[in-house]
Design goal:
- Helix 1 runs parallel beside helix 3.
- The chain is an alpha/beta fold.
- The chain has four helices and six strands; from the N terminus they run E-E-E-E-H-E-H-H-E-H.
- A hairpin with a 5-residue loop joins strand 1 and strand 2.
- The chain is globular, with a radius of gyration of 17 Å.
- The protein has one domain: Ribonuclease H-like superfamily/Ribonuclease H (Nucleotidyltransferase, domain 5), CATH 3.30.420.10.
- Strands 1, 2, 3, 4, 5 and 6 form a six-stranded mixed β-sheet that branches.
Length: 166
């Protein structure tokens, strides 16, 4: 969606609204998994997805978000624009908005003094999300949201094709 507003100088300016939907999943946990995202911007849709032969559900959820934000960061036209990222993973949403500050402060240890799982992905996600204006939203998975359902179908396709390529 493109929003128009009057700047202080009185000229009409444009703000692009970028929406991202992400999903990740596994067949077994751990097991083969897939990740996917859909970016809505400029009146168009951009998709990305991938497969991992031995992973966890949480790693796939994080990978989907990370790959989507990398896509945003790598697109000069989208640089500096506001992003709304919607995930059906409370792990991702709460991790990046609540838990990560304490993890960093505690040397990447949980409250139970154990190493944070998926630290490599969390650190990468923190680095890139610090460079992008991201609003994080959780949405209920498998509840009929068309973009969430699209991401889920892309994840399922990645897992099916990855498990039995051909």
């Amino acid at each position: 969606m493109l929003l128009l507003f009057h700047s202080l100088s009185g000229t009409l300016s444009e703000i692009m609204e970028i929406e991202i939907y992400t999903d990740g999943g596994c067949s077994g946990n751990p097991g083969p998994g897939g990740w996917a995202y859909v970016i809505l911007a400029d009146g168009s849709q951009k998709k990305g997805s991938g497969f991992d032969g031995a992973t966890t559900n949480n790693r796939m959820e994080l990978t989907a978000v990370l790959k989507a934000l990398e896509d945003i960061a790598g697109n000069e036209k989208w640089s500096g624009e506001k992003v709304t990222l919607r995930t059906d993973s409370q792990y991702v949403k709460r991790g990046i908005t609540e838990w990560i500050k304490n993890w960093e402060r505690n040397g990447w240890k949980t409250a139970a003094k154990k190493p944070v799982k998926n630290q490599d992905l969390w650190k990468s996600l923190k680095r890139i999300s610090d460079t992008i204006s991201v609003s994080w939203e959780w949405l209920k998975g498998h509840a009929g949201d068309p973009m969430n359902e699209l991401c889920d179908s892309m994840v399922q396709k990645e897992m099916t094709e990855g498990i039995s390529p051909g």
